[in-house]
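Figure 6 in text form: structure in, sequence out.
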């Protein structure tokens, strides 16, 4: 039954234009990441290891993801859930044996699969732009892939949060408002000490995952908190499962 429910969610996405929204997210992240190409001296440093061109491009990626993702993830979750509120879909699903909690999990599985793909694609496209521009310096695979994996985790936890919020609050403007607020928190977290960013999950964890930053005219390596991101993934998964099971009991 779960596989069929996930397939139904993919079918709903055709009308909800989910893929175009994800495309906007990818294009937005890639475009904002590309600002590094316009900074003074960047195009002259493509072959200079001391200028760290890849790290400067990664700084752009780490800035773009928390600027674009929170609001668009709120939009995706809202659209995928609001159709149930408007069409009495919760009751219809329950009459066919699909409880509200299971329906939420099906929505997360379907949207999450596309979100993971979009996050990987946007990271790959930014790297591809670097190679296309002519960067010949060795590619920093570890920090780049590490940040990409962390961004996947934070995005998924944020998606789960917005799905739960959209399911429990019929007024979808609430979730969208929190998405806008999340952009502010995500960007503010970049200037916070790590201990303070830990207090603003999941938005603050974008900053905790950042492996590099700009300092003066150069870049500095940061110590990304991968264990904290892993803890966020475990806690987020546990809370999502708990919340959706409570949905089932409340509607039983």
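Output sequence:
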């Amino acid at each position: 039954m779960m596989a069929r429910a996930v397939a139904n969610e993919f079918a709903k996405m055709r009308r909800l234009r989910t893929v175009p929204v994800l495309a906007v997210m990818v294009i937005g992240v890639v475009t904002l990441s590309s600002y590094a190409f316009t900074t003074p001296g960047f195009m002259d440093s493509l072959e200079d290891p001391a200028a760290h061109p890849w790290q400067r491009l990664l700084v752009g990626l780490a800035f773009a993801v928390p600027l674009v993702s929170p609001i668009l993830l709120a939009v995706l979750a809202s659209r995928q859930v609001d159709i149930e509120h408007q069409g009495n879909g919760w009751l219809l699903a329950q009459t066919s044996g699909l409880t509200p909690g299971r329906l939420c999990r099906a929505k997360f599985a379907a949207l999450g699969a596309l979100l993971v793909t979009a996050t990987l694609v946007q990271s790959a496209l930014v790297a591809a732009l670097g190679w296309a521009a002519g960067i010949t310096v060795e590619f920093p695979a570890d920090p780049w892939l590490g940040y990409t994996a962390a961004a996947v985790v934070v995005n998924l936890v944020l998606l789960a949060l917005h799905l739960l919020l959209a399911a429990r609050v019929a007024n979808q403007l609430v979730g969208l408002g929190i998405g806008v607020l999340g952009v502010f928190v995500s960007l503010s977290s970049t200037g916070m000490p790590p201990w303070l960013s830990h207090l603003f999950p999941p938005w603050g964890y974008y900053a905790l995952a950042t492996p590099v930053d700009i300092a003066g005219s150069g870049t500095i390596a940061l110590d990304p908190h991968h264990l904290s991101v892993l803890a966020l993934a475990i806690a987020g998964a546990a809370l999502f499962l708990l919340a959706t099971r409570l949905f089932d009991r409340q509607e039983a």
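Caption detail: The first helix runs from residue 2 to 16.
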